[in-house]
């Protein structure tokens, strides 16, 4: 997979290193010469240019990218980069970093953003997850499909604790994607049994009834 990243700061470089470790091709673009720390990610291609200018993106061969990532600290740049990637170069997948939560409403299909990642929101979700076992926490939303990634740590007295996955009647448009148990992600099968303390990652569609989902997973004497 070929990925073009706008922003060669600490966030962009970290993403690049992770992608390279999975044997993807990565190009980093940044207009600041001070960000050109090539030695820190030598396997990546580096382009010193403005990621909001078409000639720079053409030089980066963005039309060959499978995914583009707007990872700068400037929301305007991330939006323009995503829009150009989608409309001018036909990139299949665009991911954009949201620095200011007040700007989240703009990071949608109208600006060419498929997935918006808000670090403040994710950090808030992690704080809530740490203090609210048994409560659904929205990690982030997929802007294109309007689906949500939800997390819940299963309490010991949950209605479904000790129940096989295949016997749980999930609400419509809700899918159990992953069970994290003892720090290890598991792909759930119908024969797996849900255990107290399991961290459940669920994908809920735009029309999913999350109230019913919450009632399904709360302690037996509630709801």
Describe the structure.
- With 223 residues, this protein is of the alpha/beta class.
- It folds into 2 domains: 2-117, Rossmann fold, CATH 3.40.50.720; 132-217, Alpha-Beta Plaits, CATH 3.30.70.1450.
- It is 23% helix and 26% strand.
- The chain has 5 helices and 11 strands; from the N terminus they run βαββαβαββαβββββα.
- It has helices at 10-21, 54-59, 75-87, 119-131, 210-217, and strands spanning 2-6, 25-30, 45-48, 67-70, 93-98, 115-118, 137-142, 147-153, 174-181, 184-186, 199-204.
- The chain has a 6-stranded parallel sheet, sandwiched between helices. Strands 7-8-11-9-10 form a 5-stranded antiparallel sheet.
- α1 links the parallel β1 (2-6) and β2 (25-30).
- The radius of gyration is 20 Å and the shape is elongated.
- The mean pLDDT is 87.
Entry summary:
By secondary structure, the chain is an alpha/beta fold. It has helices at residues 10-21, 54-59, 75-87, 119-131, 210-217, and strands at residues 2-6, 25-30, 45-48, 67-70, 93-98, 115-118, 137-142, 147-153, 174-181, 184-186, 199-204. Helices cover 23% and strands 26% of the residues.
Percent range of helical residues: 10-25%
Average pLDDT, rounded to a whole number, is 87
Q: Kindly estimate the percentage of residues that lie in beta strands according to DSSP.
A: 25-35%
- Total helices: the number is 5
Poorly predicted runs of 5 or more residues: none
Please write the CATH class name of the largest domain.
Alpha Beta
Overall geometry comes to elongated
Q: What's the CATH H-level homologous superfamily of the largest domain?
A: NAD(P)-binding Rossmann-like Domain
Tell me the number of structural domains.
2
Q: N- to C-terminal separation?
A: 46 Å
Order of helices and strands: EHEEHEHEEHEEEEEH
Q: Give a quick account of the main beta sheet: strands, pairing sense, barrel closure.
A: 6 strands, parallel
CATH architecture of the largest domain: 3-Layer(aba) Sandwich
How many DSSP E strands?
Answer: 11
**Sheet with most strands: strand arrangement:** 3-2-1-4-5-6
CATH-defined fold name of the largest domain: Rossmann fold
Secondary-structure class: alpha/beta
């Amino acid at each position: 997979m070929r990925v073009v990243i706008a922003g060669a700061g600490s966030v962009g470089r970290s993403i690049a290193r992770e992608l390279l470790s999975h044997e993807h091709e990565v190009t980093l673009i940044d207009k600041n010469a001070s960000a050109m720390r090539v030695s820190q990610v030598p396997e990546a291609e580096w382009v010193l240019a403005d990621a909001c200018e078409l000639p720079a993106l053409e030089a980066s061969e963005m039309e060959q990218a499978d995914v583009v990532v707007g990872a700068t600290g400037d929301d305007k740049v991330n939006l323009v980069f995503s829009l150009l990637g989608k409309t001018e170069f036909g990139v299949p997948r665009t991911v954009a970093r949201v620095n200011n939560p007040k700007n989240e409403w703009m990071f949608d299909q109208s600006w060419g953003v498929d997935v918006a990642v808000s670090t403040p929101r994710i950090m808030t979700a992690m704080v809530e997850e740490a203090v609210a076992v048994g409560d659904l926490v929205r990690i982030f939303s997929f802007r294109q499909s309007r689906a949500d990634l939800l997390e819940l740590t299963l309490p010991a007295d949950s209605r479904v604790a000790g129940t096989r996955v295949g016997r749980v009647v999930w609400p419509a448009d809700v899918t159990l994607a992953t069970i994290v148990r003892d720090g290890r992600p598991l792909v759930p099968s119908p024969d797996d049994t849900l255990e107290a303390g399991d961290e459940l990652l669920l994908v809920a569609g735009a029309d999913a009834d999350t109230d019913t989902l919450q009632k399904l997973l709360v302690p037996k004497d509630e709801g």
